[in-house]
Amino acid sequence: MKSKHILVFRFSALGDVAMCVPVLRCLLQSYPELQLTIVTRKRFMPLFETLPNVQFFTPDFSGEHKGIVGLYRLFKSLKKLRPTALADLHQVLRTQLLMLYFRPLFWIKQAQLNKGRAEKKRLTRQKPKTLVPLLPQVHRYAQVFEKLGFPLSLSAHEFPPRPICPNTEALQLAENRKWIGIAPFAAHANKQYPLDLMQQVVAFLQKEHQVILFGFGKEEHVQLDVWANAYKHVANATGVYAFAAELRLIAQLDLTISMDSANGHLAANYNVPVLTLWGNTHPCLGFAPFEQPQKNSLTPNLSEYPLLPTSVYGNKKVKGYQDAMRSISPKAVIELALEVLGVK
């Protein structure tokens, strides 16, 4: 029987790539005979290290595979892998062109992500609305494989064993305390909990627990160092580990507190409880971390801010809504964190 080999396209962003992991894990659990080639950026490869039957192709969009000519060069390289199917989990111009190049090879089945743009546009229009939950992103990914003839049930998903913890000597973590990871930053200001309020959360939780801060880049590193230096049981993990080792550290956490950002998805992939803070986005848009209960999402006061959500990705500004997240009190965050941890 001819082997089944699927090329899976998802180039960015980190959170969206992370959401592919439980779907691919479930796919391979259901169809162990499949071979997957994940076409993604090199820095995302550690996300998939626990998956069997997976190989990678890492495009160079700033060099060899730049522009239309570069994409055609990428197509020719991918064709040599002799795929039997293409799964486009991104649905952007690059992947659409790649699918177009493959189209004459009619024996290679194709399926693309349905992003649900129209329904998301309706849910983010600037008028009061009824919040009807949309199809979660992970189910949209699963639909792609169903179109290819591989239906799967995400309810059958099984998490992998917890990986070995990296060396934490540099962080001086308290082994006898529960570990709480906090990722206080987001790509857009409108979905980032105000830092003065988050500092109150950090200050309280570190009294009885070990808080580990996660960020990216020099500016975030400097800010998080201020908190780490101010409180005894706060450590800053920013820049300490390579990505693969940082993922193994995240897997050891007892709780993650995250914005609507990648860190929540990274933790959820290891079955770590995630408390998510939402700004001008909303979990009903379908981007809540995988298998996290609805009560773990804290949103602004919708009576005060009835236009929410106003954005799918958090990049749109609406006058008068810049302080929406201030309606989420530090007390509410702390109480929910302690509840999730099972602390009275």
Write the topology of this structure.
Blueprint: E1 5-9, H1 14-30, E2 35-39, E3 54-57, H2 67-79, E4 85-88, H3 93-102, E5 109-112, H4 117-123, H5 137-147, E6 179-183, H6 195-205, E7 210-213, H7 217-230, E8 234-236, H8 243-250, E9 255-259, H9 262-268, E10 274-277, E11 297-298, H10 330-341
Parallel strand pairs: 1-2, 1-4, 2-3, 4-5, 6-7, 6-9, 7-8, 9-10, 10-11
- CATH class of the largest domain, anyone? Alpha Beta
The total of helices stands at 10
Q: Tell me the name of the CATH homologous superfamily of the largest domain.
A: Glycogen Phosphorylase B
Mean pLDDT: 96
Biggest sheet details: 6 strands, parallel
Q: Terminal Cα separation, in Å?
A: 58 Å
Q: Any guess at the CATH architecture of the largest domain?
A: 3-Layer(aba) Sandwich
Tell how many strands the DSSP assignment holds: 11
H/E topology pattern: EHEEHEHEHHEHEHEHEHEEH
| Adjacency order of strands in the biggest sheet | 8-7-6-9-10-11
Indicate the multimeric state: single chain
Low-confidence stretches: none
What this model shows, in words?
By secondary structure, the chain is of the alpha/beta class. Helix content is 32%, strand content 13%. The protein has a six-stranded parallel β-sheet with strand order 8-7-6-9-10-11, sandwiched between helices. A five-stranded parallel β-sheet has the order 3-2-1-4-5, with helices on both faces.
